[in-house]
Model the fold of this input.
Amino acid sequence: MVLQSVLVFAIVVLGVRGPAWPDSARWWLKGAAALLVFAGLVVAVSAARALGRGFTTFPAPAERGALVLTGPYAVVRHPVYSGAILFLAGIALALSPWVLAGVAAISVLWGLKARVEERLLLARYPDYAAYCGRTRFRLVPYVY
Done:
């Protein structure tokens, strides 16, 4: 959690203090940024809503939670992270190329955190292994 918070803070600082994109690329980057931010918000919010009271920022499943297999969870196993990565990539395109380094770092961190979460989910929910077999990708469809 601490490293995650540090990386989010670094992304904000890089966005504010880093150099802007070149003027020649700004017009189309702004449009792509808006699309990514919107898509990221839709994915992350819909995933969090699907979890309901089971949503937590910690790797261990919430006591009041249930195994969710539908909605965005039918596409990837960790859609809250997927949506957040899309959102942050949009922020990077809107602000500064330096932000991409922070987005890459937090993406790696969330990929590792997802592995830890999966071990905990396997221990908590007997059906999780079958779900992993059906939903092969952790964060990015057809990639990872």
Remarks:
- The CA atoms of residues 14 and 130 lie 41 Å apart.
- The chain has one domain: 30-53+66-144.
